[in-house]
């Protein structure tokens, strides 16, 4: 008889860790499977890629690593926390969310703009067939021009493009239960 050790359960090697733990939903007819299989099901947590959510650490690279792990049908997940993001690609903070992928931010999870008055910052570019629930703190509406697919933008801004003038046509984007606060409006 083989025994499972704490080392085996803590390991991330193939066949170890969550692959050794069983999972079954609590309802009648549920099928037993491994915890690893359940964890890989749909959610891609930014915390799994190193995001701190402490309002001090620049979480941009960790969030982008999580976005890179997305595949159609999967959801980028933000547990409660304040995620500081900065410009990483011209004016984009976060890599484009692939078509067919979603974004879900828990209540108490916020994307925080780098407090730089000169930087234009794009939080999300959506490529289509996305459902997003996000919370954004800061930014300003543009002083001139229309919104043209941007949610917010401009100095110290936050933009989310859907079918914008950047050559990205995004159809079928649904925004639900989102909150945007502390937005400056030009006078």
The helicity comes to 10-25%
The helix-strand sequence is HEEHEEHEEEEEEEEEE
The main sheet comes to: 5 strands, parallel
The total count of helices amounts to: 3
Q: Gap between N and C termini, in Å?
A: 75 Å
Strand order of the largest sheet: 3-5-7-10-13
Extended strand count: 14
Inertia-based shape = globular
What is the radius of gyration computed over CA atoms, rounded to a whole number of angstroms?
19 Å
Unreliable stretches = 140-168
Give the amount of beta strand, in percent: 25-35%
Mean pLDDT: 74
Based on secondary structure, the structural category is mainly beta
Describe the protein.
With 187 residues, the chain is mostly beta strands. It is 10% helix and 27% strand. It is built from 3 helices and 14 strands. The protein has helices at residues 6-10, 35-39, 60-68, and strands spanning 22-23, 33-34, 43-45, 54-58, 75-78, 81-85, 102-105, 109-113, 122-125, 130-133, 135-137, 159-161, 173-175, 179-181. The strands form 4 sheets. A 5-stranded parallel β-sheet has the order 3-5-7-10-13, with no helix packed on it. A 5-stranded parallel β-sheet has the order 4-6-8-11-14, with no helix packed on it. Strands 1-2 form a two-stranded antiparallel sheet. It is globular. It starts with 5 loop residues before the first helix and ends in a 6-residue tail after the last strand. Mean pLDDT is 74; it is low at 140-168.
